[in-house]
Design a protein that fits this description.
homotetramer; 254 residues; alpha/beta; Rossmann fold; 9-stranded mixed sheet; 9 strands; 24% helix; Class_I_gatase-like (chains A, B, C, D); ThuA-like (chains A, B, C, D); Trehalose utilization protein ThuA (chains A, B, C, D); Trehalose_catabolism_ThuA_prok (chains A, B, C, D)
Chain lengths: 254, 254, 254, 254
């Protein structure tokens, strides 16, 4: 099979403005995430990166057309992501591009648009220990990691997480404070597969953690479509502003 | 329990411009749909109607705040529904207002926004017989109707229907041409419950059909929230344009 | 609507043999559970009890036929429950009787038969604090309780819980040790509704807890069937030992 | 990756006693099913067969231990399958062996035990045309087949199909009589994956059909576990007759 073409998208702002974050991620969080995917997938993946401040946020039509799976980390600047880029990414996901949404990406425009809900949650940035328990031990995303994965420190995310009930619930996290969170969830939307994975606040070295990198790599492999072509679901009418005037369907024998 | 406050929303355009439709629905499709709900729910519901050409499409903030369940039929003029009204309805659904989407409402702005997908399907308007089979005989929405419900003539809707996998699949339809369609589906989004029900093209007298009316009435009853208050999921951040600045959660004992 | 006819089944052995348990539940755990249901449902329910050492375990055909919802607590003596009684309960659940399975009932014959899996889990009986978080705030079973419910002490149950993915996940618990558990789950089987709820080891006074009682009462209300008759799914062939010789189906117009 | 070790199990009775069936399947239905899998998977699979009248039905412990995916076709002799063989297959499925159940296998002991329900359905053996529509176009099992698959003649199976709601609904069939059926369904049970696929009555040459063979081959590939070891879910207690006496769990840091 051809290598998976991965684009790792990073907001890349905290790394510019906060010394502490720059210390943890000298080349940017996106480079560390990309390195983790390369580490686990090797020749099975070709990984590039893109960031908010590149033209078109580095997500032009040709880039997306050549991307099998996009990963997304954003936080402070969700509002700066251009709507036309969100439209483009949305269309590609519904057409079959995989999407892996990380941590604070829960409030990104692309994720909330795909979910249709507020995607709110509870949070507390106070060095909680996070334990990540597998609740679907058969899932490809859960292979090769301990039960639980132990993250010494990360931001707490707690329920209620306002997303549609996931198609598959893979991981549940608990925190020092006793909170719980559905921290690994999958959904199918159109022809695309979506994986949300909770760990990864910018204030902690979470994307250097071996098991977290493994889960993200597993998620990338899982999210790649089995369909050979990138197409929107048929009789496509993506925008809602106009009445569709396509052809009537004349049946299986027509 | 208090009566369910229902608002039946109708586009009400075909009835103005097409003699054939006016003949089937002299007072508008919305009035026939409303009559069917009253017929089955009696004193258990208080039903009003609203239409596209009323100011604010008849869906002001006070109207929605006093609506437990909204039903939606639209077709030719989805694009004329104002975005601010869609925002308002969306917020109310996520806060707990029930939504029953009928037939060509599958391409309404509110439904596609809640689903996050294209909501496309195959169609053919050629007098197919529709058989509506129950696949979840325990579901409250399926009570009191034959298996199958027989609709002598309606528009064909066929798979693939590009929606998220329904939380519950209640009905599957077949058509004269051999096509199938997931014709009764439920989803939960935020605090709201959504029921999509396929029958009801404007060219056929479907909303005079006893069993179809029963299903819609059942759907209205099911869609009413059990929660006493109308509130968005907590730590609400509905728009995606700004960084949330709420309080950190201090845990169950704080 | 008629009152819900509830039968609370209790193994009632620990109460006979362990002074500590008898002290917590002088009249037996089943009587305390029954009292909690009466407290919350009042005239909306008629509650009786049955126990292992009664003839036929108190679950004769007439008793089951007059039971809308059965609750089940067992632990030390699962193996003593007669297979013919399990057959009878199974047939009634598939025919529409609701079933609420409590705590160590996860390993009862009736639950494992309905699930088809081992229903194993991790456990530790060392006075963990249990926090029960709502992950489906719209669910009728989750109404009227705090988020989280705090149980000062109970046995720990941890993932992986080997059950089919629940149709609806209502609650997730965390424990002092950091473990998590899908502690409130629903499944539909045949015409019956099943609710599993984790709290309630015999060594702790959990069934005196106001919120736990509320959840069980909510579960009973939810599990009552909407169908008017108690019947197995059609073309019934319950045992697998014989070839079915029923009539061919001649279609909707025959 | 190693080739998938497939065992195709066939009841192989109709082929012995009915000339018509022997004419369609001179070497037995199991050999035709096996040939179809080989045709599509080639070197990626090693396929053997086993039948009812072999000792232990050809499903000894060593055979199952060396089987990644088992396919099952039975009809007239479900009752002759020994309970100890069913126990063994059940344990292997829960431990990670994939299972593909075909057509009248819906009433096999192994399938009803895994489902926990009656698995009844409506049927009519009168040469209906069957159309098999894809409702999850992203699913690996649905790749490479037309929409719909057209089967000129097969037995009709109609709803209501009394199984647990499938984890994934891949195909829905319609029939000449207008009936519908959830004809391609998946479930996860324990560490095992299960795929039910409806086509294939013994009176028709369905397993010679190119697309049907493709789906079965896809199902085999999908059902193979990602887990490296064949083990029951942990703290294993398979039978329900005895109280578990295993070790208490001392937590992630113990």
């Amino acid at each position: 099979m051809d290598p998976i073409r991965v684009t790792v998208w990073g907001e890349n702002r905290h790394e510019q403005t906060e010394e502490h974050v720059a210390g943890l991620y000298p080349e940017g969080m996106h480079e560390t995430i990309a390195a983790g995917i390369r580490e686990h997938l090797g020749d099975a993946a070709v990984v590039r990166t893109a960031t908010l401040d590149e033209p078109g946020h580095g997500l032009s039509e040709p880039v997306l057309a050549a991307t099998d799976v996009l990963t997304w980390w954003g936080h402070a600047a969700h509002g700066e992501v251009a709507d036309e880029v969100v439209d483009r990414v949305h269309r590609h996901v519904l057409s079959g591009m995989g999407l892996v949404v990380l941590h604070s990406g829960h409030w990104s425009k692309i994720f909330t648009r795909l979910m249709g809900t507020t995607c709110t949650l509870r949070w507390r940035n106070e060095h909680d220990r996070e334990l990540i328990w597998t609740v679907d031990p058969t899932h490809p995303i859960a292979q090769g990691v301990p039960h639980p994965i132990v993250v010494a420190e990360d931001e707490m995310y707690g329920e209620h997480f306002d997303v549609p009930p996931p198609d598959e619930l893979v991981f549940i996290s608990s925190f020092s404070g006793g909170e719980v969170f559905r921290s690994g969830c999958t959904w199918r939307r159109g022809h695309g597969r979506i994986f949300y994975f909770k760990p990864g606040d910018q204030d902690y070295p979470v994307y250097h953690h071996r098991d977290i990198r493994r889960v993200i790599a597993n998620g990338v492999r899982w999210a790649r479509s089995d369909r050979p072509e990138r197409v929107l679901p048929e009789l496509l009418r993506y925008d809602t502003g106009e009445f569709f005037t396509g052809r009537s369907y004349q049946g299986p024998t027509a």
